[in-house]
């Protein structure tokens, strides 16, 4: 029995499915499980092969993860504008020293005041 191709499913393959079981088979024959950025890098480098078991109601199906671009985008390892709806963008950053309550603090003010980070100066 040969595993099915996850790549053939395109964006319909449920990489993020909570019950999906990822199996990594390393060149030395050892087997591990998981799906993180390190797994992606090993598979991309050719140091291992990645499989996924997609559990069904009556049976489970074995897939080879053969489209690493889709895998990385779906799991957020690589940014994907289509999945997130977030276009690449830049923030304007301005540093200024101010005194609040007698203590000097650094403020990072991001574009449109959406985020503010306060870090005490050394």
TrEMBL record:
<protein>
    <submittedName>
        <fullName>Uncharacterized protein</fullName>
    </submittedName>
</protein>
């Amino acid at each position: 029995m040969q595993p099915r191709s996850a790549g053939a499913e395109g964006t319909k393959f449920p990489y993020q499915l909570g019950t999906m079981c990822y199996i990594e088979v390393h060149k030395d024959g050892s087997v591990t499980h998981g799906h993180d950025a390190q797994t992606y890098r090993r598979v991309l480098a050719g140091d291992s092969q990645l499989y996924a078991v997609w559990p069904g109601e009556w049976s489970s199906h074995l897939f080879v993860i053969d489209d690493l671009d889709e895998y990385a985008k779906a799991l957020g390892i690589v940014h994907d504008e289509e999945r997130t709806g977030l276009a690449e963008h830049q923030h304007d950053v301005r540093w200024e020293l101010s005194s609040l309550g007698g203590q000097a603090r650094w403020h990072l003010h991001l574009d449109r005041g959406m985020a503010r980070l306060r870090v005490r100066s050394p």
